[in-house]
Amino acid sequence: MKLRIHFLTALFAAFLMACSSGPKTNFSDYVDPFIGTGGHGHTFPGATRPFALVQLSPDTGIRGWDWCSGYHASDNSIMGFSHTHLSGTGGPDLGDIMFMPTVGDVKIVAGSKENPDEGYRSRFSKAKEKASAGYYEVHLDDYGVDVALTSTRRAGYHQYSYPESAQSNIIIDLKHGVSDGPREGFIKKISDTEVVGYRRSKGWAMDHTVFFVAKFSKPFEAIEIFAEDQPVAGVTEKKSKNLKAALRFKTGAGEKITAKVGISGTSIDGARLNLDEEIGGKSFAEVCQESKDEWEVALAKIAVKSGSDKDLRTYYTALYHAMVAPYVFSDVDGKYTGMDRKIHQVKEGEEHYTLFSLWDTFRATHPLFTIIAPEKNDQFTRSLLDKYDQYGMLPIWELHGNETNCMIGYHSVPVIADAILKGQSGVDAERAYKAMKHSAMADISGLNYYKEMGFIPCDKESNSVSKSVEYAFDDWCIAQVAKKLGKTKDYEYFTTRSQSYQKYFDSQMGLFRGREINGRWNRKTNPLESSALGSGDYTEGNAWQWGFFAPHDVEGLIGLHKGDKQFTFMLDSLFEQQTEMTGHSTDVTGLIGQYAQGNEPSHHVAYLYNFAGEAWKTQARVRDIMEEMYTDQPDGLSGNEDCGQMSSWLGFSALGFYPVNPASGEYIIGSPLFDEAVVTMGSGKTFTVKAQNNSKKNVYVQSMTLNGKPYAKTFIKHSDLEAGGELVFVMGPKPNKNLGTAKADRPESKAFGNNAVAKLPAKLYMPFVNEAGRVFKSDKRVSLASTQKSVIRYTTDGTEPTAKSPVYKASLKLRKTTTLKAKAFADGFAPSPTLEEKFVKAKFNVSGKGFPKISLEKPAGKAYNPGTKTLLDGQLGTENLRDGKWSGFQGDDLVATVDLGGVKPLTAVSTRFLENTSSWLFLPTSYEVEYSKDGKNFRKAGKLTHPVPTSHPVIRIKEFSQKLPAGTSARYIKVRARNVGTLPSWHLGGGSKAWMFADEIIVE
């Protein structure tokens, strides 16, 4: 018996060695899942399959930006092994259904990294940790347990090798998740070998449920259930917000216990069906081999036939990471939970997918799928349209059936448009077009300004520059589909909208710059200042990193620079700038000058030299990026992986070309990394790329041939790849500066193409008021101006200005509270938007001298505390929450007492508040005013209430105004504004403290 056990142990050990290491005879052998688990890569090392629902991986930490995947290479202890993970994202979530094998007394909390002994966490050694495509293993030092993991698409397979122990355990932790919050857990014992349940949570995905069925190879002797970390005696099933269980076994030395775990987003029955269909009675070894085989087929779509082991490890791990997401979300019977939270059924032979990090992956990942996984990309496209049917909008950043509204743009559009334009989608083009157009015409995220004015004002909407230039590209994509469908008016409309990026080009700066609603440049612009999502003019970057985003109209962008020479000078300046930034966003990494390979807005930029006739500079820059920013080490990614985009850049670039405009059907030539690579297209034909005389020094293209004929163009079309053939590069150590200089040999990128397009009527910018301050005590002079030559007409009675309203000629003298409205008019232009400003005559001096005095019961939060005087300084805050004029209170009420210095006759008290729920800013739920002559005895003037919104409203400023009883005289005014407290459950940050922004308290 012992001989047989030893024989089987040796046989299995030999299999594991073959599964995880051994001679590299297959492409999958070059995959190293530890690449990206260090630095800021945010990847996980565990077992998964291409586009699978399950990512069975160790969790070493669940808090902090570098633990978005639950794992970081810097750690030396493990909490357990959960079944769902995010791959390289900039935000954390998932980590569902965690198992942890232990020995000895049961501990029911994980414990800390600093002191693993206080919980079930275990130390481990990197020397005893291995991972390969579809497989992971580790030795848990504290328990002497060897863990091996593999998976199918919807099920995880655990194998635990225990030491001899009178009490070995498997902890099931349903509270555990990566930075999310549990809502409810359920667990039930079905038999001595089967446990079922679910975990419902709230995090990045607001309403997320994972059901599971777990079957064990050995009956457990007991199950103990814990609710709120307390044992619940005598039960075999339980629901609780904090729910855990411990299964107890006796084990002999080296005894193996396996756990087969099916998961589902629909039901326990769905999880059982997934488990039975995908694993059933298969052994661990069989499933592991099947996983490796599946990865081999996927990776073989690009067969590299040369290169160092280092380069091959780096490249094939990149392809591996590119195919981790999106995840299949339908069960094997086709059922899935939709964005309407209902159960849907896909058609026979179809699957539904989730996890669309579209701001990242539209650039290169989905274009890569059109080459190496077109049948999957078809299903991704149809999944996006199904989500539109269920949710009413195309997804922005969808996760397990939830719209997270993360990032900017409507980047489902280029993914769908590219599939339609390449003829690969297999969807109803009319249905797709309706969805794309609807998303582009919504009044959200600055689109109301964008549609009306042709740009988004920086003083009205955060990230205005980034949003507008990306909307412009998405609009170009819509225009191309409209053209294909014969929708001429829509084609003209969206093509014209695609030119809106030009309104942000500051010719003096040579970069895109924020504009205020009146057309003036943002005077606070610092080209080196980086801003994050929700703040500043740029999203995760600065003016340099966003200054070259017009992939659909590069020739138009070159025109703004007055030609090739100045354009290439600015590109050179980008790469040669100092690397320092202010207001640094954590996502802006991998810097070469101000070029940031670690974040997506820079990814196309190195290829732009081709459009200006200096292709040799692209070749040098691209090869430098490949060499400097990608390695085969845990910190081998220069930024977070972002569901495949960071790796897809290398996936293309190493072949020698890249999709600058991912929906154009053109790839821009760079510098190939390998001597030979064979790409198998969806048609079954192969396209071979060869690089003669290639080396680390020979980075410059001397000449090319396509299918044996000389090829001088610095781009290649998708149709050339689809047709099959051979592209041969001849490389050398010195640049061929004549290659691609002729206009005919450069890539074409014109928004309008060769067709004349009728432009929409031009509009004037809104007029503006020259003077600061909107609150005054004595009479106030107000002067108007415009950034364009125009006639300004105005009203002071609250009516809308028309072409018959008075013409502004000289400054206006205001003697009372007045609402001033103004519009600019000029021949050949549509009237400007209406300027509306309220000037309030107050009962106190706002010059800062003497009274009034103000005291706060609780101070404003540190991040938004410009001082109490800002509430009385007469300077009104704008829709820009970071303009320095708002006092922010997080979780706290505003209770302010104003001392006017003496008893005065009063009529009303008002206070302005900013609503921007996406940035956690909510209006007060109630507003109360009290008044007093002595500061001790206060009388209530009244109370105003406001409901908590049930979804994100448009960003706005709302004034709460309370009239005082007739004949009121008082010295002291007390304002009470009640904070909503915690964010409502529908909000992404639900349960966290809400902000309330106030400015200005006005006493009349």
UniProtKB/TrEMBL annotation:
Residues annotated as signal peptide: 1-18
GO cellular component term, pick one: cytosol
Tagged with keyword Ion transport: no
GO BP field: carbohydrate metabolic process; glycoprotein catabolic process
Pfam families linked to this entry: CHB_HEX_C_1, F5_F8_type_C, Glyco_hydro_92, Glyco_hydro_92N
The entry's keywords: Calcium, Plasmid, Signal
Classification via SUPFAM superfamilies: Galactose-binding domain-like, Six-hairpin glycosidases
MF terms in GO: carbohydrate binding; peptide-N4-(N-acetyl-beta-glucosaminyl)asparagine amidase activity
Domain called F5/8 type C: residue spans: 886-999
Coiled-coil stretches noted in the UniProt entry, renumbered to this chain: none
Cited PANTHER family: PEPTIDE N-GLYCANASE PNGASE -RELATED (PTHR12143), SECRETED PROTEIN (PTHR12143:SF39)
Quaternary structure annotation from Swiss-Prot or TrEMBL: Monomer.
Name of the featured protein: Alpha-1 2-mannosidase
Record organism: Fulvitalea axinellae
